[in-house]
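Example record

One chain of 121 residues, shown exactly as stored in the release files.
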Amino acid sequence: MHQIAFNEISAAEVSAIPTMEQLKLFFAFKVDEEVLRNPAADSEYGIIERDGKTIYRFRTEKYRIYFTIENRVVVVQRVLEADSLKDFFYRAGVGSEDQKLCNSRSFWKLIEDGEHAKRQD
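Predicted structure tokens for this chain:
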């Protein structure tokens, strides 16, 4: 089991989720490094890479958690509602969710904003 840390932005995003949904979300969020190394195509986990930077994605029906692993600490960079991304993917055309994010400047801006926010352990 890894320690989970949130930056200010992701902490605020989580706090906006109703408490029972938070519990369900984080009950399902199990970080297994073996799964992260080779996620199956239909897995709730994904890898997004660009310019040597790796972001992991955990997907549920309603939410997406984007995180990094730093010194065995899972750092949650962003927690977004799935519907906010679904519209983007619908308009963006074919390809997997992770492939589309690799090339999306707005996605990387969201992640960078989270990385520059203070971390709350």
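Notes: The chain has a mean pLDDT of 80.
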